[in-house]
Amino acid sequence: MTAPRPVPSAPLLRGSVVPSFAYTTIKDRLPVILAKVIDHFVRRQHREHIKGSSAAATEDAAATAAAAAEDTAWDDRSASELRRIRDDIAALKYAMARDRPLEPLVAAADASADEATDVALWNAALDELDAAERSWFKAPWLFIECFMYRLLRQSLLATTTWRDYDLFESEKQASLFGSAESILRMASAALGVRAAADRDAAAELIQFSLWGNQSDLSLFVNAKHDEAHKHQISGKDQLASSSSSIIVNDMDAVLDKLAAIRTGTVVIVLDNAGFELFGDLCLADYITQTTECTVVFEGKLFPWFVSDTTARDFDFVVDECALLADKREHDNLREAVARWRAWVASGRWVLRFDPFWTTPFPFWRMPERAPALLKQLSDAQLVMFKGDLNYRKMVHDAAWPPHTPFAEAIGPIASSGIAPFVMLRTCKSDTVAGLRPGQAAELDAIDKDWMVNGKFGIIQLHQ
């Protein structure tokens, strides 16, 4: 007999709850993301048209250069497939706005065994929903957001030209370019060669990693990338002024745990690429220099939630940091990049991309759905989960009373044997646990949007 699925005692977040951040996300934010993807392809098609006209190309050199930078060859098939992707996304946007029923995924005719398995997994997850909740606003919010990104993936997999295309790559790269000044400033503050462990330095790096999570392109859908550095915390003075915005702060316990680790594995479950990833690399740099540990970075197999880190994103950030260091003659950054590349080559730094991270399942289901991954996380000395989505998955994306003990909100993960872990998250969804009684009301009086605007952070340890 199959064991019953664990479910939280608190209600799951859903777009059918009005008002709620889930409702606003499905009504407003997700359609904007889809519209920007359509606009990206319209611009791409326009650039190719210009590129094909020598006269126009002469008049619009910038557009021609942008087209030349694209890594997807352009021919009749790519143009036809692009139009079909645009139609798929427009239909998805229409269905979402009208709360249409959720349709099962369909594997491409030439789907690999892994792709077919993934389609079966998603359809089984869809079948777990009650019939009355299988629509865009009625289904659990966590499922809906994940489902949208998986549908975008399905549209690309049905093509030959675009199947490995990153719909969000240009945005991620523009955001990184706009963060150059922040990267240089943080590099000056955080990237010296370490002779020994330093508690104050470790605390600063953990905070840099935490606040980097504010740079989330799925939340700030209308962000101006060339001004990204103006809103990023990259200097020690900013850390001091931001400390009061850490609403759960287990820093001392995390530092004690780090100080006790000498060998083994530290896992960082990544969130956003770009500036946030740079902060994570700085923290990993410290851990690698002051211990004999291997650092494992867990990223996403394919583009996810706009700015989540893929293998290409990881390489791009490191490569761009190298170019920036040379351009600005920044020795700290240049030397750090050389260390990072050497550690990747030697195996001190390991990149992993487990399929579980791009499923709709909360971490409560990890013992059942990803036992091998859970074993790897259990064997680590410490796991660092970055970002809001990982937090939502950890607490089953439920509307917990904020004073609910964190151990209760993480359900079966608490007794799963997982290594001690810390959540580094800026609050961008209406779920939180582990606050002291009355703290939520105090925060409401300070900022009514404290749960969702990314201005408040959490350093939350479970061991």
Automatic annotation (TrEMBL):
Hydrolase as UniProt keyword: yes
Q: Which InterPro entries match?
A: ARMT-1-like_metal-bd_sf, ARMT1, ARMT1-like_metal-bd
Q: Mind telling me which SUPFAM superfamilies this protein's record contains?
A: AF1104-like
Q: Where is the Damage-control phosphatase ARMT1-like metal-binding domain?
A: 26-442
Looking up Pfam families in the UniProt record yields:
ARMT1-like_dom (PF01937)
Which EC number(s) does UniProt give? 3.1.3.-
Q: Which UniProt keywords apply?
A: Hydrolase, Manganese, Metal-binding
Reactions listed under catalytic activity: beta-D-fructose 6-phosphate = dihydroxyacetone + D-glyceraldehyde 3-phosphate; beta-D-fructose 1-phosphate + H2O = D-fructose + phosphate
Q: Which cofactor does it need?
A: Mn(2+); Ni(2+)
Query: What enzyme class is recorded for this protein?
Result: hydrolase
Q: Give the family per the record.
A: Belongs to the damage-control phosphatase family. Sugar phosphate phosphatase III subfamily.
Domain topic, free-text comment: Subfamily III proteins have a conserved RTxK motif about 40-50 residues from the C-terminus; the threonine may be replaced by serine or cysteine.
Q: What is the recorded function of this protein according to its Swiss-Prot or TrEMBL entry?
A: Metal-dependent phosphatase that shows phosphatase activity against several substrates, including fructose-1-phosphate and fructose-6-phosphate. Its preference for fructose-1-phosphate, a strong glycating agent that causes DNA damage rather than a canonical yeast metabolite, suggests a damage-control function in hexose phosphate metabolism.
Protein name (Swiss-Prot/TrEMBL): Sugar phosphate phosphatase
User: Which organism's genome codes for this protein?
Assistant: Polyrhizophydium stewartii
The encoding gene:
HRT2
